[in-house]
Design brief:
The complex is a heterodimer of chains A (294) and B (66). Chain A is α/β, with parallel strands linked by helices and 294 residues long. Chain A has helices at 2-8, 22-31, 67-80, 98-108, 120-134, 189-202, 210-219, 233-243, 282-285; strands spanning 12-17, 42-46, 52-57, 94-95, 112-116, 144-148, 156-157, 164-170, 177-184. Chain A has two domains: 2-87 and 278-293, no CATH class; 94-202, Glutaredoxin. In chain A, a hairpin with a 5-residue loop joins strand 2 and strand 3. Chain A is globular, with a radius of gyration of 22 Å. Mean pLDDT of chain A is 84; it is low at 249-292. The chains are: A alpha/beta (294), B alpha+beta (66).
Chain lengths: 294, 66
């Protein structure tokens, strides 16, 4: 969907990690249906002050017909706000902790860069040096970034704990990483760009189907603790199924996913009510005129 | 086209639930800012609208997958 990627240049694109920050959960809840529990995914388009102008519910599919429709509407909104993409962010897009960054890198099947500095000032200086490389057209969106004081690198194999830049590859589950290239605090922009390209080219992640990944994680005793409780009704229902012995079936002979069956029907008084309707349906979204974006 | 859109959707907006979906992360090329703090500051400074998505980086307690 190159047209959506192109349209995204006129937007600030934020992707938050659900259940990994209480304060961000409050932001997401404010965009969600009133009084409904926060679900795993949220999609919205906001004005430059953070006010919602398109509430999409869980995904863009709930708002736009397809990628062309989405890019058209995004371009329309960008024109309305006079955004022409000329402004490139100055700040390195960093995930708050090494632990979460390794997980996100594994989710994205991308390497990550850890900026190590002994104090805030040094970390900020090193991150500022890397930022133009991260936002360059060749490398934008291809790496995950985080910072470290050097005391939380226990999950990164072969990592030096001294100031500098660690280019690392996450493992399948994002619970550990391996340092691939390490540059000192005196690395220049050309060296940073070169190392970035090198780690991208050398990274060949293992890929499992969604269901096989979850099954393998369970079998290996992998258990991720979220920062705040998961509240998505579908996830909670799936967990109930697991606890009730309705675990995922083994892979089929063709290697295709076999979704879990519905299980026994609960008593009538225990049946979960269907979720309320989505805020904005596709038919409604197309009625929103550009003038309403203000 | 709709199918392509679903599969390549912005963040691999995967609904981690009993409905298992194939893992995808075809978002290469979009410069995601990973925190609200950074995003709202940048939007305010650059006067750009915000494309917001959120997803859980784990499924059923297993990390490494959206």
């Amino acid at each position: 969907m190159p047209n959506v990627i192109q349209a995204s240049r006129n937007f600030v694109c934020v992707r938050m990690m659900t259940y990994e920050s209480a304060s961000e959960a409050d932001v997401l809840k404010s965009l969600w249906r009133p009084d409904a529990p926060l679900e795993n995914t949220v999609f919205a388009i906001l004005d430059p002050t953070g006010r919602a102008i398109v509430r999409g519910g869980r995904s863009p599919q709930m708002v736009f017909r397809d990628a062309d429709d989405m890019s058209y509407r995004m371009n329309e909104i960008a024109r309305y706000y006079g955004s022409n993409g000329a402004s490139i962010p100055k700040e390195l897009p960093t995930i708050d902790t090494v632990r979460l960054a390794v997980d996100v890198a594994a989710c994205d099947k991308r390497p990550l860069v850890i900026v190590v500095g002994q104090n805030d000032q040094e970390r900020n200086q090193l991150a500022a040096r890397l930022a133009p490389t991260a936002w360059s057209e060749q490398l934008i969106g291809k790496l995950v970034y985080t910072t470290s004081k050097g005391n939380d690198l226990g999950t990164i194999r072969n990592a030096r704990h001294t100031s500098g830049f660690i280019f690392a590859a996450p493992n399948l589950f994002g619970t550990e990483g391996s340092a691939v290239i390490q540059l000192g605090a005196d690395a220049n922009p050309a060296q940073l760009a070169s190392a970035s390209k090198q780690v991208i080219n050398s990274y060949h992640p293992e890929a499992l189907s969604h269901q096989d990944h979850v099954r393998a994680g369970k079998q290996n005793g992998i258990d991720w603790k979220t920062a705040i409780p998961v509240t998505d009704p579908h996830s909670l229902e799936a967990q109930q199924h697991e606890r009730g012995g309705q675990s995922f079936p083994p892979p089929g002979p063709t290697g295709q996913d076999q979704r879990p069956g519905p299980g026994p029907r609960p008593p009538r008084d225990q049946r979960r009510l269907p979720p309320p309707p989505i805020t904005l349906r596709p038919s409604e979204s197309r009625q929103v005129h550009i003038r309403e974006y203000r | 086209m709709r199918r392509e859109f679903f599969l390549a959707a912005l963040i691999g907006l995967l609904i981690c639930s009993a409905i298992a979906r194939p893992a995808i992360a075809e978002t290469e090329g979009i410069g995601w800012i990973p925190t609200w703090r950074q995003a709202i500051a940048e939007a305010s400074k650059a006067r750009k609208p915000i494309l917001l998505v959120a997803a859980a980086p784990q499924c059923s307690g297993v990390p490494g997958i959206w």
